[in-house]
């Protein structure tokens, strides 16, 4: 039978051990966990995040919508008050990404790579087929006219005659497959590619929104991103694109910054995120929107607001998306001029249906209906930086302005029209499998400290029990009797 003194010693010994161990581990657990999290997330050839990042295993889909112009005859007859469009789609493609030609730069903790992307049409998920015909503005005519807008009037007359040799008007009908990946032939492109002395630089023999892009390694350009090895907070940030740390935009608008959207450092408390989009040669700012839950994981959603494609009309710091001299080329807020990024074509990017844009754009087009679910948004689990859901949504528009001397271009009802061509939604959401991995990591972070608190409390309870017994013995013991004899002290051997 265990004596009272032995019981006191055991309670005091084990209680002290649990209190000290629990308290020490509570203090050191957060840095230990963060150290393990860094080992998992920092990009190295052996890290868990590397294999997921290199070839994204989560299903991704590209939904494409086209704006079919339905009143071409009225426009050509001069009786139309607006352009009328009907949105066609979605035409859904399964998308896959693979990072290739990797170069590790250990001197500055960066990784250089190319992003190879593939798209495969999914007829069962689509509303229509790739053979559907779409009528819209001929991008070649709109581009040539836009490039010639500042040329001598007689040169423009010559361009008009040249365009009339091959085209009756500025409208073009082609099937979805041609508009997307196959490309559309045009005699003007053939001549432009054979005559490099012309003041028109068009590097492709066909026009298509994704022409020569399916499976291309070079199209998106090279990326140089931070691995997080020397500064974990910089994980996934783009340092250079196409071997440069700036794009064609001036001042802060020309900075190469933000994540490509696939890899994030823990972002707890960040009011804004930056997503670098090579398609538009700049970054998109997403602001904190709302709390969200995906597959049982709590996260924060970031979304674009009316500052995303402003150019100084509402937000002064966005004025760098326009020229220093604000002229007619600086359009109202909500459409970003990416013409320099698209070989001089009058291409402008907006949110779908001109969401959050100046009302003047949508007023000129009949058939648009912007809703908040068309917004560009991204949801992250804030502690691990894990993307929970992504809906990258943008609209491509062509600016058609009346150019004196080129009447083939001057038939639209309004002399200054932003014509919606197509919009896309690139969507992905974490799977139950990867959500389970995230939940396991989060349980370790939150439950282990609770377990340590419980151990500490048990230890305190044991200490209180031992001290209580000790005090009772002190009260009952003679003054000269030891409370615990040497034989009753538990051995630590």
From TrEMBL:
It is found in: Cell membrane. InterPro entries: CD36/SCARB1/SNMP1, CD36_fam. Keywords: Cell membrane, Disulfide bond, Glycoprotein, Membrane, Receptor, Transmembrane, Transmembrane helix. GO terms for cellular component: cytoplasm; plasma membrane. The chain crosses the membrane at residues 450-471. The keyword Protein transport does not apply. It is a multi-pass membrane protein. It holds the Pfam family CD36. Disulfide bonds join 253-320, 281-341, 322-330. It comes from the Eukaryota. One of its GO terms (molecular function) is scavenger receptor activity. Belongs to the CD36 family. This is Protein croquemort. It comes from Mythimna separata (Oriental armyworm). The lineage of its organism: Eukaryota, Metazoa, Ecdysozoa, Arthropoda, Hexapoda.
């Amino acid at each position: 039978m265990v004596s009272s003194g032995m019981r006191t010693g055991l309670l005091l010994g084990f209680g002290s051990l649990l209190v000290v161990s629990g308290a020490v581990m509570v203090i050191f657990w957060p840095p230990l966990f963060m150290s393990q999290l860094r080992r998992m997330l920092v990009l190295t050839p052996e890290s868990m995040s590397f294999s997921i990042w290199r070839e994204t295993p989560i299903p991704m889909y590209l939904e494409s919508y086209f704006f079919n112009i339905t009143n071409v005859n009225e426009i050509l007859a001069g009786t139309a008050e607006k352009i009328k469009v009907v949105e066609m789609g979605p035409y859904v493609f399964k998308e896959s990404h693979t990072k290739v030609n990797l170069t590790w730069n250990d001197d500055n903790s960066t990784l250089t790579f190319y992003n190879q992307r593939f798209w495969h049409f999914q007829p069962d998920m689509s509303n229509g087929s790739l053979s559907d015909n779409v009528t819209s503005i001929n991008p070649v005519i709109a581009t040539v006219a836009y490039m010639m807008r500042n040329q001598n009037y007689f040169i423009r007359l010559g361009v008009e005659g040249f365009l009339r040799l091959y085209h009756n008007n500025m409208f073009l009908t082609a099937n979805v497959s041609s508009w997307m990946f196959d490309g559309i032939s045009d005699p003007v492109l053939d001549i432009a590619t054979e005559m490099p002395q012309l003041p028109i630089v068009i590097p492709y023999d066909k026009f298509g929104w994704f022409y020569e892009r399916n499976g291309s390694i070079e199209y998106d350009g090279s990326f140089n991103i931070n691995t997080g090895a020397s500064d974990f907070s910089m994980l996934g940030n783009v340092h250079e694109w196409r071997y440069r740390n700036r794009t064609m935009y001036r001042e802060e608008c020309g900075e190469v910054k933000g994540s490509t959207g696939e890899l994030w450092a823990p972002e707890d408390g960040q009011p804004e995120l930056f997503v670098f989009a090579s398609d538009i040669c700049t970054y998109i700012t997403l602001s904190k929107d709302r709390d969200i839950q995906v597959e049982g994981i709590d996260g924060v959603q970031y979304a674009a607001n009316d500052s995303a494609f402003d150019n100084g009309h509402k937000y002064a710091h966005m004025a760098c998306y326009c020229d220093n001299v604000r002229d007619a080329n600086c359009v109202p807020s909500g459409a970003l001029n990416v013409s320099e990024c698209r070989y001089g074509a009058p291409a402008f990017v907006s949110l779908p249906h001109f969401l959050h844009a100046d009302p003047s754009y949508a007023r000129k087009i009949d058939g648009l209906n912007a809703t908040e679910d068309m917004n560009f948004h991204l949801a992250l689990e804030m502690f691990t930086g894990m993307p929970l859901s992504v809906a990258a949504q943008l609209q491509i528009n062509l600016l058609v302005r009346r150019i004196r001397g080129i009447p083939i271009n001057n038939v639209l009802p309004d002399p200054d029209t932003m014509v919606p061509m197509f919009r896309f939604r690139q969507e992905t959401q974490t799977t139950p499998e990867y959500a389970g991995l995230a939940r396991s990591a989060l349980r370790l972070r939150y439950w282990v400290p609770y377990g340590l608190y419980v151990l500490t409390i048990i230890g305190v309870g044991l200490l209180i029990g031992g001290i209580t017994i000790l005090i009772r013995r002190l009260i009952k013991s003679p003054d000269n009797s030891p409370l615990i004899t040497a034989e009753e002290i538990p051995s630590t051997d």
